[in-house]
Amino acid sequence: MYGIPDRLKALSAAEEQVLLALWDCKPPVSRRDIGARLAQKGWAAATVLNFLYRLEEKGWVICTKEQNHNLYAPTVTRRAYGVYTMRQRLDTVFGGDLAQAVRALVSESGCSQSELEQAIAVLNEKHAEAEEYDLYDPYG
């Protein structure tokens, strides 16, 4: 769904934190690398290992052996997961109404002028792509 395989089981908030730490590293990643990122938040090494095991069981990471170390790699990109989670929230909170969600985000989140200009540029680019596609005549 939304670029995430249906076989993957839902993540807890803590599992998501481990996956985010994994994405912050260049895979494949050792437990120590992930643990170093999470240690700043008070995570113990055994806890990180436990959550990596859970993520592997749920299909979010794959584990390979290199000598006597386990190395971990995500099975889904951060971008795909981001789209998936944003789409879920859009559907749940705003009934799938993107315009309503954008209005709420822009009016309530304190976006800077620079952030708004970047967002407008992305929307204009996407709009131009759609117009080009609409004008394309495969038989012409």
From TrEMBL:
Similarity comment: Belongs to the BlaI transcriptional regulatory family.
GO MF, one example: DNA binding
Keyword RNA-binding carried by entry: no
InterPro entries: BlaI_family (IPR005650), WH-like_DNA-bd_sf (IPR036388), WH_DNA-bd_sf (IPR036390)
Residues in coiled coil: none
SUPFAM superfamilies documented for this protein: Winged helix' DNA-binding domain
Protein's name in the database: Methicillin resistance regulatory protein MecI
Gene3D superfamilies documented for this protein: Winged helix-like DNA-binding domain superfamily/Winged helix DNA-binding domain
UniProtKB keywords: DNA-binding, Transcription, Transcription regulation
Single GO biological process annotation from the record: negative regulation of DNA-templated transcription
